[in-house]
Amino acid sequence: MRILTPFAGEMLVLVMLVFLNARILFTRRTRHDALAILAPLSVIVMILQMLAWEIRFTEIVIFALALVTAILNYRSIVRFSQNLFVDSYSVKFFIASILLLLVSIFVLVVAIVMHPVHLQTEKYNVQVEREYFSCATSSEFSESNFNEANEIFDKRNFTLYTFSNKNVSTQKNTIVLFVSDVFAETLNYEPYLILLARAGYTVLAADLYDDDFSNLRNTKTFRRSFLLMNFFQDEKFALNEIGKIEFREKSMKSRAQEFSKIYEGIYNALAFIAKNRYAKKGIFIVCDSSSVLSTEKLDSIFGKYFSAPDARAFPRSLNLADIDDYMMPGFGFVSQTEPLFAKIFLGVARDETSFAPSYCVYATRQKMEN
Fold this sequence. Notes:
Shape: elongated
Radius of gyration: 23 Å
Mean pLDDT: 86
Strand content: 5-15%
Number of helices: 13
Helix content: 40-55%
Number of strands: 9
Largest sheet: 7 strands, mixed
Structural class: alpha/beta
Low-confidence stretches: none
C-alpha cells in the first residue's frame, strides 16, 4: 500500500464547490435545486478531513471557502429540504456565486499545480505497511500499555509505518528507526523513507499523540497548527548563508522538553518492536532536530531491550539537521509533501527532482556504512 494523503479529500471538496457555485448557470426554475446539498456536505467533509489528518494551511483555506459558500446557500438548502422548486436567484446571490466560483476554480488550479510530489512505491519496489496501536502517554512507556488497536473503536494514538524492499534478497541486515520532529509527521518524510527502503533498509517510523484530549496541543488535529502558529509568530528561527532553517537554541530546547514524553515513548515503542520482530538485525537511528535524544538517554532506553555486548544496546544515530543539503530541518521534505505551504511560508519552490531526500539517503548510508 501507499501512504494515504489528504490531497484526494481536498480535490473532492473543491470539485463539489465548483459544481455548486456553477449551478446558477444551468439550473432552471422548474427544477429542484438538488446541488444545494453540496454546500453542507463540503463543510462536513472538510471537518472530517481535518479531524482525520490535521489542520493544515490548505485545509483552512478550503474550509473557509466551503463555510462561506454554505452560508450563502442557506436559503437554497432550506427550499430543497422542503421539496420546493427553484424560484429565482437574486442579483446579489448571482454575483456572489460567480465570485465564489472564480475563487473555487483558482484554488483548485493552484492545488493541482502545487500538488504533492509522491514517489510511487511500485516504481521503487517498496511496500508500506501501516499499523495502529494504543500507547499510554500520561505515564512512562511499558509493554503492558502498548497494545494493537485493530477494532474500529479502539483508541489509536500510535501509528507505525514499516517501509521495506519487496525483494528480500536486497534487504540489508540493519533496520532504521526513524523519529520525526513534532513539527512534522511521517507523511512529511515519505520521499526519504521510500528511497531508504529502495536501498534495502527496512524502516520503522511512528507518530504518537496524547492518548486523550486533555492537552489539545498534542492531538493529531491541533499539534502542528499550534506549533506553527507559535513558530511564525515569534520568529524562533533564522536562515543561514545558504538559506537553511536554523532554530533558535531556546526554541529547540523548549520543544524538546515539552514533548520529551512523546519522543521517549516513540523510541521505547520502536525498540520494543525491533526486539520482537527483527531480533537478528542491527539498529540505526535517524532523527530530526528536537527529536534528538542524548547518548545517555538512548543507551538507557535501548539497554532495557538489548543487553551488552549486543551493539543494539548502544545504537548509532544520525540527526538529519546535520546534513547540509537538508534545508528545512524539523519540517521534513515539505517542498515535496506540502509544496504550497513550503512556497508561501518558507519561500521554497516545489521539488519534482527528489534531490533533497536522495542526498539525505546518500548521507545516511555513508553514516551507516562507515
